[in-house]
Automatic annotation (TrEMBL):
This is SDR family NAD(P)-dependent oxidoreductase. GO terms for molecular function: oxidoreductase activity, acting on the CH-OH group of donors, NAD or NADP as acceptor. PANTHER family: SHORT CHAIN DEHYDROGENASE, SHORT-CHAIN DEHYDROGENASE/REDUCTASE SDR. Belongs to the short-chain dehydrogenases/reductases (SDR) family.
Length: 224
């Protein structure tokens, strides 16, 4: 197949499982992590790059590395994200800023510098959350995380409008996954990271409608 996937936040959780899933299906995978190291995957089609989404200079360095190596990308999966206020009711200034620096600002500007590296008819998948849906919001917790995913959803819609003729763009809710992003996820999550990654993989290789907001757990479209 020889298609190339770039997955941010690939050192653990959903990102790690996604990297393994794509490699098992014949893709070349570029995985990023803050340290630049990803343990547990040994595959000649796997490459790791260092990326801290909160650092603009670091984003430019990654862009230069990809250009210097002549890399082209078929699918960009913006998976990296943080949720320090998950399970807490009130916003807190420092973690609020950290959340937006990674989940919104860093993800947006990484995508912007990589758009010219994405092959014609490529795909951009933003790993969002059902918690970012305004219509479905009925709770008061996780203010920064929820707002960051809502903002990411808006970026998805804007990108899908701008790139409509050459690139498909989607926001994806990965399900309630048993990852370390929050204590409640560890104890109450319905999906393993492998199950979530399988759903994301199947969506990513499908001919989905650009601009869609998709729930891989229920395989249904979400309300914005």
């Amino acid at each position: 197949m020889n298609k190339t996937i770039l997955i941010t936040g690939a050192s653990k959780g959903i990102g790690f499982s996604l990297a393994k899933k794509f490699l098992e299906n014949g893709f070349k995978v570029i995985g990023t992590s803050r340290s630049g190291k990803i343990e547990g995957i040994i595959n000649e089609s796997f490459e790791t790059l260092q990326l801290d989404l909160s650092d603009f200079k670091n984003i430019e360095i990654l862009k230069k590395e990809i250009n210097d190596k002549g890399r082209k990308i078929d699918i960009l999966i913006n998976n990296a994200g943080i949720g320090p206020d998950l399970d807490f009711n009130n916003p807190e200034e420092i973690t609020f800023k950290q959340t937006f620096d990674v989940n919104v600002i860093g993800t947006t500007f990484l995508t912007e510098v990589l758009i010219e590296n994405i092959n014609i008819y490529g795909k951009i998948i933003n790993i969002s959350s059902k918690m970012g849906s305004i219509e479905l919001c009925e709770r008061i917790d996780s203010v920064a995380y929820r707002m960051s995913k809502t903002a990411l959803n808006m970026y998805t819609k804007i990108l899908s409008n701008r790139l409509s003729e050459k690139t498909k763009v989607a926001s994806v809710h990965p399900g309630w996954v048993r990852t370390t992003i929050a204590k409640s996820n560890i104890t109450e999550g319905r999906l393993s990271s492998e199950e979530s990654a399988n759903g994301i993989f199947n969506f990513a290789i499908s001919e989905f409608r650009s601009g869609i907001y998709w729930d891989v757990e229920t395989e249904t479209e979400l309300a914005w």
